[in-house]
Amino acid sequence: MAVSVLALSFFGWVRSGAARPADAPASLSGVVKFEGVALKGTRIDMSSDPNCVKAHSTPVTTEEIVVDANGGLANVVVYVSDGLGTATFQPPAQPVVFEQKGCQYKPHVLAMQANQKLNVVNDDETTHNIHPTPNNNREWNMTQPHGMPLEQTFAREEVAILVKCNIHPWMRGYIAVFKHPYFAVSDKNGSFDLKDLPPGTYTITAWQEKLGMKTQKITVGAGEAKTLDFTFKQ
Amino acid sequence: MIKLTGKVAILVAVLWSVNAGAQESHIGKLVGKANRGKALYVRYCIFCHGAQGDGLGESAPYLDPKPRDFTKAVYKCRSTPSGSLPTDTDLYDTITRGVHASGMPSWKPLLRQERADLVAYIKAFSSAFQEEKPGAPVSIPPEPASSQDSVKRGGELFQSMNCWLCHGKDGRGHGPSSATLTDSKGYPITPFDFTSGTHFKCGDSDAEMFRDLVTGLDGTPMPSFADAMSEDQKWDVVHFIRTLNTHAKTHAVAKNEPKAP
Q1: Is B219 in Cβ contact with A167 (below 8 Å)?
Q2: ipTM of the complex model
């Protein structure tokens, strides 16, 4: 299940000097494709917790590689990895939501800005522990029974932090943290959209949890809307 | 040129003093110094924790659980909330107490000053202690007396909070998820066996068990229950866990129950 999270906010962009018309924002959109034989997700056995079993009427599979009928690859984080110089960006006021539903993470892959609020929600009739295992951020590990409010944050950029629930070992999700707002997660068709980019030359990276990273260089002029596709092969 | 050299010298002196400040520990009135701690570390700690403090000392391959990697600055036994650095006193207490069911012995035979110096040296392995401050220590309210009702409620919470999925219904650490657990460095880790005795990883008292429930043991799968349970509920769980110990016949519950008239 792919949920696209676009936390692009031009509002949060701070840069000295007044914006000139030549700074009219550009945009980049495209599709992430998968070529090859995609392994079907592995069936998840939730029998250790009856509350998880009862949340599903059909068998549940892992979400490592999710491809649609046209080869669109979901859950790929596409972001500007170079070209923004020394510009700094304030986190948006809006929190991002990471949900535990049916003993799975929704979305499976989430992208957010550093120091943006992360609102963790437990919709399940069971207790989870949410345990990010970062390399570049502080590690925390919080128990969350049904309905308990939980707000956390990550201070530093990191692509991407593996999030586990140790109680339910099949639960795995990823949170990508950026110091700028130019990132997107491909939706169930593999589509992504990077909006409000300042004109410039950028390195764009696509990250997938199993397939790794791909990068491309692209230059966008003021007000330009360009397309950019990525293909992962296996 | 002389002027410039002077400026550089001042800069170096300033940086040195900043650095030196960070390489101290403060445990009550005790001030530990990293430069003194180094010799002690090389003598006592290096075999397990390694010269770089990364937990990859000579003995590390033979140890389970693995020695702490000081470069990550993630510590199990803290008085501070999950995700924050431990206080100097937390590290000092761990060195003093040792860590039960691990290779880490009690270093109480060392002088208090020596333990404080070791804390300062251990902190110097990670820049985290210079970049961040430890969180505020969690508060531990007075413990209500244990009772059969408290133990019963604790047992229900042990179920509903899913403690049993790792620690097992009988508290032996054999819950259905137990075989899947790893520490944050990827090494397999077993949930604590509550039937094994009266010693626990981060201290043996009820208050320390309460604190562990609030802080969690960072770097392991054991989460913080800070907002997941009320204070009374946490005490109930502590009282319940005490009943899982099959080795001690006399137990706090019996002791605290009102005597029959």
Answers
A1: no
A2: 0.85
